[in-house]
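S1.2 Input.
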Amino acid sequence: VQLQASGGGLVQAGGSLRLSCAASGRTLSRNVMGWFRQIPGKEREFVAGIDSSGATLYADAVKGRFTISRGTAGNTAYLQMNSLKSENTAVYYCAARDSYFVTRLENGYKYWGQGTLVTVSS
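S1.3 Output.
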């Protein structure tokens, strides 16, 4: 399975960005897909996850501002980020796991994309 993340860029504080993650290699319609982020010098942290039924889980820091979704075929995941703050600046990674259940744990995800940089200017 290969994951390709895209959509990062430079945005002003208060603005919005939509990240996309496209999976190839096999169908992930029954898999969990998720987003993590990493600030330089810090550990990678969970942002959001979605299971095959559309059930979602969010980190407390992004609840109400970020929305994770997936395409109808199940092989694409999106992260809509609104009301962005400077502290949201990070490299965002998409990930997938061979399970029906979302987890916040980084080691619970087997497949990883290359990351896309989001920079929020204040």
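S1.4 Remarks. The mean pLDDT is 96.
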